[in-house]
Amino acid sequence: MMAQYLEIKGQYPNALLFYRMGDFYELFFDDAVAAAEALDIALTKRGKHLGEDIAMCGVPVHSAEGYLLTLIRKGFRVAVCEQMEDPAEAKKRGSKSVVKRDVVRLVTPGTLTEESLLEARRHNFLASFSRVRGESALAWVDISTGSFHVMPLPEVRLGPELARLAPSELILSETDELNLEDVTAEAGVSVTPLGRSAFDSTGGNDRLCALFGVETLEAFGSFTRPEIAAMGALVEYLEITQKGKLPLLRTPVREAQARVMQIDAATRRNLELTHALSGGRSGSLLAAVDRTVTAGGGRLMERRLSSPSRVLDVVQQRQDCVAFAVEQSRFCNDLREALRRVPDLDRALSRLGVDRAGPRDLAAIRNGLTQAAQIAGFIGGMDLPDLMTRAVRDLSGHDELLDLLDQALVAEPPLLAREGGFIAEGYDQELDDARRLRDEGRGVIAGMQADYVELTGIQSLKIKHNNVLGYFVEVTATHAEKMLSAPLNETFKHRQTTANQVRFTTVPLSEMETKILNAGGRALDIEKRLYESLKASILDESASLSQTATALAELDLATALADLARSENWCRPKVDASRALLIEGGRHPVVERALRSQGGDPFIANDCALGDDSDIWLLTGPNMAGKSTFLRQNALIAVLAQMGAYVPARSAHIGMVSQLFSRVGASDDLARGRSTFMVEMVETAAILNQADDHALVILDEIGRGTATYDGLSIAWATLEHLHEINRCRALFATHYHELTNLSDKLERVDNATVAVKEHEGDVIFLHEVRRGAADRSYGVQVAKLAGLPQSVVDRARVVLDALEKGEREGHGKREAFIDDLPLFAASPPPQPKAPTETSLAEKRLGEILPDELTPREALELVYELKGLLKG
């Protein structure tokens, strides 16, 4: 057996081998050591190899999925090796023959299909990047839904696209793995290298044509050689990992960068579009706006939010759907109730395609088609927007398949086909006959038991069954002599004696057992055959079923956004090709939701007005006043508008944003040797080098990570570059009040400030953005609110007054008047008093038990203590 294990393991040196042995997957040698540590399970040993103990651990087959998920999340790949024959067949070849085994699947992060291993509301993309003669492309596929996309992509854009798609796994040529190490590390994606032959465009073309059964790919579009190479590598990898059982993939869709808003990785992270800075979904924009009720709708929501459109017609068609659902509130609510009962059609279809499905996936297709037909029935006659009309059209056309599944399946099928019982009675006469014999056989056995009890006079006689003896008659040991004596011994033949029972058989019982067992096995075989037939009928319509799933997701998204708009009082934004960013009463959707959930103060809405006359707002004001919130909320409003949603504002006019850049907050990147300031400068450089005149840039505290004059000069030059070279729209927050003078020199720069109110030395935040500049940053007051010791706050005021006085008196250098500061004038913190002797009054109080005092005694005690204090 170990020779077989080592041979198979040699074919998969970079994966853990799950070696099937009966009801367990066993792991040996180094695999066992690694898996035991990762899974926190016992490490044992089995025999010796080359004189040393063989490490071993194992996991039960029935619960293997949970262990697989843990291993995949910890970066392992797993080769699943199954028994390819029944052990009884192996024994026929000889007592020492080894059961035939082979790897049936290589489990990797990007090739998961099991429901328990995937997040229902998120795609699980497998991506591939290729380069051919100086050009490059990215392809990606989700085998759990069948979606397949490709786009030409310069290498410099790989990082932002990986941030947008967040693939679980990226396939690279062996020669590219090291070259792209920085990009893939920043994206946090699992990288799988493949040989150069996998990226050959000619071979890739052949693989794709074979996959889709066509002579040429021209019917799907015009693809470049790098695109074909990237797609071909994906198919090659799927053939390797799925052992020839390729998943159902839709025809490839070619995307273009110019059709979506470009958002780099840093901006996605800063704006917390789909993940909060803490790493989870909670606290992100997606969590705040996602009200979809289906898994497919949830995935579409994340896809749209990650890729806001730049195509005006597309945005407006999506808005029309949301507007229709907002106006038709009763229709919207009824439709959402119907959608709640829609299962995940895409993933059920995918599991059927790779032969990892069960009867419940058949039922999911049936239930989904049932709901689709009902939805089409009650909205089909309405005057719908174009996008909804196309969606409703795709809900129909499955009557024949739906009738077949309705007739064939029971209401609640079991999980596994091998359990049987999922085909409805009356669907197949042969199956009904086999079941009748199987089920009536149980009644016959009960009748035979009654006859044998009457024949023997032994009331405790039972007919039982196990997998070794089959059916047998069992009596207690006290009746053994009677059963073994004439005349009963002629009917009952002894089979087995145990400690307390004796077991017998009879000729009629053996004959009935054969009939019953054959009937049960025959019924199960018939059900398995019918399962394959139903699966084939579904797969024959896989293309149209995918369209139905897409239509249901589209309806779910439109009605979810409408429900959000109605309940949150959001407005439909005007989106056009201008450069306007005019927002009245804008709000931050995540912060507003958090304030409401905490029962705090209402969110203060603010206006923003950018466009041809005022491209840049220079925003000043103290920390904690809400500058960063204001910056982010306007960026999020632009994202929501271009994904086709309503926005949190009284009104909004959004000129199409081509690129969105955000530099808000910073942290070290120690793993790559970057300080906070270096991270800030790298991100700022990316903005200044890429932003075009239709970009929207939000910058917060540029230059704060270095010396004051260095930082001021960098912020000054950055603002000028945005105004003169990039000529984009920007919100620029700063504490460098010197920059406010630029509004007089740069014609498209306006000053704005977040208002505060000072009262008795404390600062009150109004969270209101107004035109104009702040006179100071109120840093000392904010420090006081944060809880700094009063001595520190007082000393800070002294230093601040001295510095400001020096500036007013025109010192050339701050160092000149810093020398005049009384550096050691800070009041020392009060020293703790030395412990004093306990007073007589304190001693007396220590002797008192208050609960035992009467009112009169308490009054007398007061007089007594007063006397002690005077003494």
TrEMBL record:
InterPro entries: DNA_mismatch_repair_MutS, DNA_mismatch_repair_MutS-lik_N, DNA_mismatch_repair_MutS/MSH, DNA_mismatch_repair_MutS_C, DNA_mismatch_repair_MutS_clamp, DNA_mismatch_repair_MutS_core, DNA_mismatch_repair_MutS_N, DNA_mismatch_repair_MutS_sf. One of its GO terms (cellular component) is cytosol. GO terms for biological process: mismatch repair. Belongs to the DNA mismatch repair MutS family. It comes from the Bacteria. ATP binds at residues 621-628. One of its GO terms (molecular function) is damaged DNA binding. This is DNA mismatch repair protein MutS. This protein is involved in the repair of mismatches in DNA. It is possible that it carries out the mismatch recognition step. This protein has a weak ATPase activity.
